Amino acid sequence: MLQVCSGRASIPDPDAKLPAWAFDIHTDAAGGSCTSSGLGAGAVTVGWWAVIPWSRAINFGKIAENGRRLDRTMSALELVAPLMALVSGQHLWRGGAVRFWVDNAGSVFIWKKGYSSSCPLCTTLVKAMYVVAAGIGCQVDVVKVTRCSTPLADMADALSKGSLQRFWSTADREGNLGLPLFPAPVPRALQRWIEDPKTDDRLGDKLLEEMFREGAPVLGFGSF
Known about the structure:
The protein has helices at 56-59, 74-88, 90-93, 105-113, 120-135, 151-160, 164-174, 188-195, 203-213, and strands at residues 23-29, 40-45, 48-53, 97-102, 139-144. The protein is α/β, with parallel strands linked by helices.
């Protein structure tokens, strides 16, 4: 391919990294449970946070398309948090760059690969992230972090466990995080998907359509 290149544009760097000014967002997700309340997915960064609780389908372990219980499809559940953060804070990341720190190595590998041959839910979530990122003109990466290894990682873990007391306690110890009292609202299209997780190649499009209907500029729908 290099031999037939016209020379009119530079060759993309396959090892290109996000810029130093990228937003660093820590995310986490818990497995579903019908005996513990408040479990779900959470995301936090300086000045912003969001959380979404699991549905009955996830908490009670409904059987997914690949034959696995939804409450134990951890790679997929972990990918819900970055997607939630991407769409809930789209007004902040639009035209920028976001790095999501995830403590599940499988989720990070699936993101890098772009799909999962064993979990269609992971493929749905990864594709939705790519579509939404393109729609808001945002560079996105998902990288590995050790569980609860930083204050923000611990706060994300607290959100996933429904422990707001631990979340705010850690925030108070850190100071200067500038977190709002209430979490960012989660788009209804993602909430509906959480109610009944299944393969949906249009999940990203549905999220972008909802953003556009609510007045947000979206590439392909309206000008920036």
